[in-house]
Design a protein that fits this description.
single chain, Beta-lactamase, 19% strand, globular
Length: 296
């Protein structure tokens, strides 16, 4: 037994050294990829099955923008698990709820309002299509951003802050940085969703499917991947201010790799002076490099 242990231990150590060397190689490549960009690029990558992890620029607080709709979705689904809400519960929506001059597929489809949508439909609009009005309607339903913030902290996600809704950010651009996350906090939420540790199976499966159905940001995490790649993700985007600075272009998600493993990936492009297309290409390039490296 001792002989077998002495034989196995060097093999495991050699395997770990090789694994670390491969991860270090990708980390070096990613650093080179973002080195000449006039932006702070935060990257968190973790292969769930192997634990291999890469983090770049973890010290910053990254503006969430619409990524916080994932946090909202988790909170709403938690309340459904508790029996306080139901997925098929209908919510009446007035025309006054559908604010103009904001991204809202709901308003495009129902410009006059005066409709009923289920909470499930509102979540799908809010997460999959990043509807700003749907987001704020759900926030009003549950009692505001404080409820989301408190729930995040209750499940152990401390390095995140949710203070303002979509209309706040639209009307008061100085609040764009009020909702923020650190990289590991964003990655941990995705790992919890993948593992199904915070929601019941039915609500967790609903959330994963809703994330997989996301239509926004096709040129980000999915931009350079094969069309058949399964990506459950949530995007976030700010506009460019008068000084030519874009506060945030984000995409975080779970990618199913060709070898069957699953990769958590969070890419936040913060305070960028690059073109919008460049910001999206940064995210796509990071995702492709990681997909290729860990997927073989």
């Amino acid at each position: 037994m001792m002989f077998r242990l002495l034989f196995v231990l060097p093999f495991l150590m050699l395997f770990q050294i090789n694994l670390n060397a491969q991860t270090d190689s990708l980390q070096k490549d990613l650093k080179q990829l973002i080195a000449d960009k006039n932006a702070v690029v935060g990257v968190y990558i973790k292969v769930i099955e192997t634990g291999e992890t890469i983090t770049l620029n973890p010290e910053y607080k990254y503006p969430l923008m619409s990524v916080f709709k994932l946090h909202l979705g988790l909170t709403v689904l938690h309340l459904i698990d508790k029996g306080e809400l139901q997925l098929n519960q209908e919510i009446y929506i007035n025309k006054s709820d559908l604010l103009e001059n904001t991204w809202s597929p709901i308003r495009v489809k129902y410009p006059e309002g005066n409709i009923k949508l289920t909470i499930a439909e509102l979540l799908q609009y809010t997460i999959s299509e990043s509807d700003n009005n749907g987001c704020d309607i759900l926030l009003k339903l549950i009692g505001g951003t404080e409820v989301v913030n408190n729930y995040m902290h209750a499940i152990g996600i401390s390095d995140v802050q949710i203070k303002v809704n979509e209309n706040d950010m639209h009307v008061h651009p100085d609040t764009l940085y009020a909702n923020w996350t650190k990289l590991e906090a964003a990655g941990t939420i995705l790992q919890m969703v993948y593992a199904g540790t915070i929601l019941k199976d039915s609500t967790n499966n609903f959330l994963l499917q809703t994330l997989t159905n996301t239509t926004t940001g096709p040129q980000r995490l999915k931009g350079m991947l094969p069309d058949t790649t399964i990506v459950a993700h949530k995007t976030g985007t700010s506009g460019e201010n008068n000084n030519g600075v874009t506060a945030a272009v984000n995409d975080i998600g779970i990618i199913t790799l060709p070898n069957g493993n699953h990769m958590i990936i969070c890419v936040f492009v913060r305070n960028s002076r690059e073109l919008f297309e460049t910001n999206e290409k940064i995210i796509a390039s990071v995702a492709y490099a990681a997909w290729k490296h860990f997927g073989e």
